[in-house]
Structure formats: structure tokens, C-alpha cells
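Q: My labmate handed me this sequence with no annotations at all. I'd like to see what the chain might look like in three dimensions before we decide whether it's worth expressing. Could you predict it?
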Amino acid sequence: MNLGLNEEQKLLKSSAEKYFHNNYSFEIRRKYIEGYLDKNELWKSLSGLGWLGLPLSTKHGGYGGSVSDVMVLMETFGAFLVTTPYVYFTIMSGKIIEKLGSSKETLSILSDISEGEAKISFAFAEPQNRYDSNKINTIAKKNDNNWLINGKKNFVVGAEECNKLLIPAYCKEDQEIKLFLLDKRNDSLIINSYQNIDSSSVADLNFDNFVINNNNLVGSFKKEDYYKVFEYLLDYATLANCSEALGIINKMYDLTLEYVKTREQFGKKIGKFQVIQHRMVDLFIKKEEMRSLNYMAQVHMSESSKYRKKKISLNKIFLGTHAKNFGQDCIQLHGGMGVADEMQIGHYFKRLISLNTIFGNVDYHYKRYAGI
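A: Here is what I predict for the chain of 372 residues:
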């Protein structure tokens, strides 16, 4: 089996690297985070390059890219530390609307996502559920032509940048999952925003008899139908994060290799010392192991949920153990400079740590793997 990139993927990788090299350097990234540059302009640029429509079907204004195509892009995101909510806005929100939406009005939103006009964050996580994706405690109750929503959503990524929110809630009356598309510009909506360790914006949402018009209902689904689609998209998003982590550890390796080749101690470059050379070889082996696991998971994404879940969990287990140690070793080889804010390596490590806990930590995926 040929696991190398095809010509289209090589072109995608090359164009993404060229764009981010010119428009998203480490210094420019800092300006985006500190608010000196408008993140909306970056999002429009990604749309102009066709990347927002990459995972979406051509029937709905997308480009019909494969899972492997998206992973090539995500790896490049990791290499340049692009902390946009691409996974939440495009992969999760876009794909769940594509798979569960039925009306023309709902499906027309997909072209808006591709064009960068609709920035929809999927608010699925709840504080009391940990990583349990098969449970929704937010309750929806019909009230004439409206719905009353009660519950909490936490760790909503991109809540600052989005203009709409996708809210799943459980209706006790018919025992179905209701999916609502809500305009964020609502004075009654309680949003508690904060910054994650990797400088990405996240928020918690509180719904206390929150009124949503019936026109905002995307659809009503049986629990088994909703969870089947949601679990697949959760694995898709998890693999995307693992691909981003792969790009991060590749970049951390390159930065560390460059550092040990130039840093002098005891009258010679520290890369000349055999113990440093051995550690660099160990790091190289670890990053190639992660690449192999990532490619294996991509191959199994189209198979049954049993095999797919196993391969995805293996990726997350590796990310939470070996990749974390990988980052710590890179920091240590930089010495005290490794944790300085001016050095890139520390910022890559923060993002790596953040990706370790999103969509399930090591303990969760050990249990999931053992239970399959």
C-alpha cells in the first residue's frame, strides 16, 4: 500500500506551507493573538484558498476532499502553529450539518461555511459528562412555537470568533436529540469567555429557560442515529488534532536539531556530544512512529466503528504519552531558553499539551480501547 502523498496532496501541502511562511510567521501569530491583527481577515484568506470547503461535499459548495487531504492541511497547521478553530467550525459543524441537515435552508449554510461567512462553533461538551459523547444533559422543552433550553455547555472553542452556535439538546417528551442553530448575537445568551493555555479562545455557555424559536431547529433525531454520526465526526476531529500534533512534533524536532547544531558548550557544538546525538535519534524514531500511527488511522476511518475507534484511540494514547515526553525532551535540550516566551519551542509545547486533553485524555482512550 502506498501511503505517500499523491500529486494533489503535495500541491496542497506546498501551497499551505508557502502561504503560512509568508503570512503567519511566529511574529505575525503573536499579533493575531494580542489583537493587533484581525482574525477575521485570516479566516477570509483560508476561505479564498479553498481550505474551508475542503472537507465538505461538492454538492453543497465544498471541494469534496478526502480524510487524508484534510490531514495534510492539519499537519501544516501544526507546523506553523495556526490556532484557528478550523476543526470546530469546518469539520465538526460543517460535517454534522451535511450529514444530518435535510432542508434546503439548512444545507445552504454549508456554502456559507466554505465562503467563510458562516462561522459556526459546535457546543457539544458539557461539564458533568467528562468525555462521554453518548450523553446530553442539556434539556429542550417545547413551548408553543418556541423551545426552552436548560443546561450548560463548556469548552466551546472559537466562541469569540464565531457568529453562530450549534447546540444539541435532549427532549424528554419524544426522547430525541434536537439540534439548534443559534445566532450568537443574542442578549439573553450567557457567555463566559476565557483563554486556553495555547492562547486559543474558548467559552462556557449557560442556558436558563433560554428561548429558541422553532425556525432555529436544524432537525430532530433518534438518539442512535445522532450518536452514530456524532461519534464518527468526533473521531474525525480527534484524528485532525493528532495530525496537527504530528506537524507540531516535526517542527519541534527541526527547531531542536537546529539548536543543538549551533549551541556551543565546552568549546564545541553540543550536537557533537554522543549523548545528545542518541537523544536526537530517539526523538526521530518517536516522531516517525507517530506518523505511522496517524497514517494507519486515516486508512481505517472508512471502516466499521470498531476498527476506527481502536486506531483513533491508539493515536491519542501515543499523543498523551510519547508525544508529551517528546516535547519535554525538546524543551530540556534547549535548556533554560526553552521556556522563554521569545522562543518558539515553548509555544509549540503548550499547544501539544492542549491537544493531549481535547476529545479525551490518555486515561479515557485507554478505557475506550480496552472496551472495544
